[in-house]
From TrEMBL:
Keyword Acetylation: no
Record-linked InterPro entries: Diverse_substrate_MTase (IPR051052), Methyltransf_11 (IPR013216), SAM-dependent_MTases_sf (IPR029063)
Residue ranges of every copy of the Methyltransferase type domain listed in the record: 43-137
PANTHER family (UniProt xref): METHYLTRANSF_11 DOMAIN-CONTAINING PROTEIN, METHYLTRANSFERASE TYPE 11 DOMAIN-CONTAINING PROTEIN
Source organism per UniProt: Streptomyces chilikensis
Name recorded for this polypeptide: Class I SAM-dependent methyltransferase
Segment forming the signal sequence: none
Gene Ontology MF terms: methyltransferase activity
Organism superkingdom: Bacteria
Keyword Methyltransferase: yes
One Gene Ontology term from the biological process aspect of the record: methylation
Protein keywords: Methyltransferase, Transferase
Family recorded in the similarity comment: Belongs to the methyltransferase superfamily.
Amino acid sequence: MERHTPDFGLTADDYGRHRAGFPPELITRLARHGVEASGRDALDLGTGTGSLARLLALAGARVTGVDPAAPLLDQARRLDAEAGVTVEYRVGTAEETGLPDRAFDVVTAGQCWHWFDAPRAAAEVRRLLRPGGRVVIAHFDWLPLPGNVVAATEELIVAHNPAWSMGGGTGLHPRWLTDLATAGFRGIETFSFDLDVPYGPRDWVGRIRASAGVGASLPQERVRAFSEELTAVLRDRFPGDVLRIPHRTWAVTAQAPGA
């Protein structure tokens, strides 16, 4: 069966304005696992609006970001300018970047590996990494817990888009370890940490519009209807100016052969 891939370019504005990016602590944790950013050549696959690419650049890496959606890269450049960093962006896919062999010390994929053809993407990462280079697959996932705002939001997404099947996640992605091991990477390690992200109600609605099950998949009239209903749910069931949304940061790191 052919898998439908959402078009995040359709929701680039919401994506750039409302989706919380990876926490800076991720870079600190990666350094403890042997993934240094300062002075390194780094490639961020599926970079989107540049959340992870920007953190790498702020930490002193020379960063290239690749994504198939040009509108997301426009948002990334805007956010980079606000952050005072420069990242080289190019339109492309994780499976065929068009970049030269052994050009990078670090290759990352943040919140996107599940959209890739894993065997082809892993082979491309091996081609792009220098001997002993590091690959990082990272996620920053909301956590649905019984009765919380995330669980209520996921219920509403399914009501508006029954084809959406990405709810109920734990923020852990063990299959990616097998993807990397199969491709010949070694020294595979994982870590995770949890934190709450504050969202205003309007920002949470915008963040959910910028998700695969809503703005990247549904026609605009259905996105508007979803937004109105989620706004009502937040007003009636989760009143207040700040929603504290539990998230889990999870990453797997591995080393390319040849060190």
